[in-house]
């Protein structure tokens, strides 16, 4: 991870550099002012992944610098993190409004900083994986696909699987009280992008159909309504009061999918993750789409059962 730290205090700069290097940040630059930071940023062939910024600096303070950096990087590829002795609410608000993604107060707490740095590194690694997937998808689409990976096309011939649009309309139709009582479960095929790259449109949709059929059949006792949301992800809505745990649901689906393994290439065996069931609130202002996204995010963020996945793929 490529890092820049900006602070006008030479003592803190030296100490912070030592802390970052202790945490294995080797690609590191230091700047003593906002102007020096901007010069460094503008001359980089490869942009910084993270920039740590102090607020209290002469000539150009850290909030002004953060605003300029964000204007130079409107897509937010670089994470801007404030590291400052100021803890007043007004500075925190101003920093996030200027484009900061995190706010760390001085003096640094060793355990807290380690946790925050780990979070920054996870975001960086996630972006690297996403970029690699996008490159693969672009190449695959040019060669063998007429549909987009993100398309929420309903896989064919699966009884009990409804369209994504139908599911959204259903959630609108049942009204806020019943919507709040329902439970939403995100289910994603972890390696869907890899499967997409290695198959054509028909085979990809057939594999997603198999996954959909297994979800519907395995979990029919949970009163589920299931739709394919695109990108190898399914959203299920249940009116059941009690649901099995994500681990139990994941295990049941994965076990049922074993019957299909012989039909797939070794690198195209679907690996499924199940997120935590999400329940809304009558008083919540979150939209239906936001509720669905929350459920899907839970599935994406769920740790993979690596040992189990390898055993299935072997």
**Second rung of CATH, namely the architecture of the largest domain:** 2-Layer Sandwich
**Helicity, as a percent range:** 40-55%
Morphology: elongated
Q: Structural class of the secondary structure composition?
A: alpha/beta
Main β sheet profile: 6 strands, mixed
Secondary-structure element sequence?
Answer: EHEHEHEHEHEHHEHHEEHEEHH
Proportion of strand residues: 15-25%
Give the domain tally.
Answer: 2
Quick one: CATH class of the largest domain?
A: Alpha Beta
The CATH homologous superfamily name of the largest domain equals Reverse transcriptase/Diguanylate cyclase domain
According to CATH, the fold-level topology of the largest domain is: Alpha-Beta Plaits
Overall mean pLDDT: 85
SS field, number of helical segments: 12
Number of extended strands: 11
CA distance, first residue to last residue:
33 Å
Low-confidence stretches: 306-314
Radius of gyration from CA coordinates: 23 Å
How would you characterize the overall build of this protein?
- With 314 residues, the protein is α/β, with parallel strands linked by helices.
- It folds into two domains: 3-127, 3-Layer(aba) Sandwich (Rossmann fold); 146-313, Alpha-Beta Plaits, CATH 3.30.70.
- Helix content is 49%, strand content 16%.
- It is built from twelve helices and eleven strands.
- The protein has helices spanning 10-22, 34-42, 62-72, 89-98, 110-144, 164-173, 175-181, 192-198, 201-218, 246-257, 288-301, 306-313, and strands at 3-6, 28-31, 50-53, 79-84, 102-105, 161-162, 183-189, 224-230, 233-238, 272-274, 278-279.
- The strands form two sheets. Strands 6, 7, 8, 9, 10 and 11 form a six-stranded mixed beta sheet that branches.
- Helix 3 runs parallel beside helix 4.
- The longest helix is centred in the middle third of the chain and has 35 residues, at 110-144.
- The radius of gyration is 23 Å and the shape is elongated.
- The two termini are 33 Å apart.
- The model is unreliable at 306-314 (pLDDT under 50).
């Amino acid at each position: 991870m490529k890092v820049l730290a900006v602070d006008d205090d030479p003592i803190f700069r030296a100490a912070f550099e030592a802390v970052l290097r202790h945490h294995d940040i080797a690609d590191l630059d230091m700047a003593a002012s906002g102007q020096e930071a901007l010069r460094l940023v503008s001359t980089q062939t490869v942009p910084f992944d993270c920039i740590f910024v102090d607020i209290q600096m002469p000539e150009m303070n850290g909030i002004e610098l953060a605003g300029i950096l964000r204007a130079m990087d409107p897509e937010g590829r670089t994470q801007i993190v404030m590291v400052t002795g100021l803890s007043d609410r007004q500075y925190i608000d101003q920093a996030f409004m200027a484009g900061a993604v995190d706010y760390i107060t001085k003096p640094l707490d060793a355990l807290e900083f380690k946790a925050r740095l780990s979070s920054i590194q996870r975001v960086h690694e996630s972006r690297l994986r996403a970029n690699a997937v996008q490159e693969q998808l672009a190449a695959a689409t040019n060669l063998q696909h007429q549909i987009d990976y993100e398309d929420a096309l309903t896989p064919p011939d699966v009884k009990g699987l409804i369209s994504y649009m139908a599911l959204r309309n259903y959630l609108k139709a049942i009204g806020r009280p019943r919507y709040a009582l329902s439970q939403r479960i995100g289910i994603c095929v972890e390696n869907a992008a890899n499967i997409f790259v290695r198959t054509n449109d028909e085979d990809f949709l057939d594999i997603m159909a198999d996954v959909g059929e297994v979800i519907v059949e395995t979990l029919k006792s949970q009163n589920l309504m299931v739709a394919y949301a695109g990108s190898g992800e399914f959203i299920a809505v249940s009116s059941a009061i009690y649901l099995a745990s994500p681990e139990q649901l994941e295990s049941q689906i994965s076990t049922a999918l074993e019957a299909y393994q012989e039909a797939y290439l070794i690198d195209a065996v679907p690996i499924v993750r199940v997120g935590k069931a999400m329940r809304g609130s009558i008083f919540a202002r979150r939209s239906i789409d936001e509720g669905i996204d929350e459920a899907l995010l839970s599935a994406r963020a769920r740790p993979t059962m690596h040992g189990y996945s390898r055993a299935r793929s072997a």
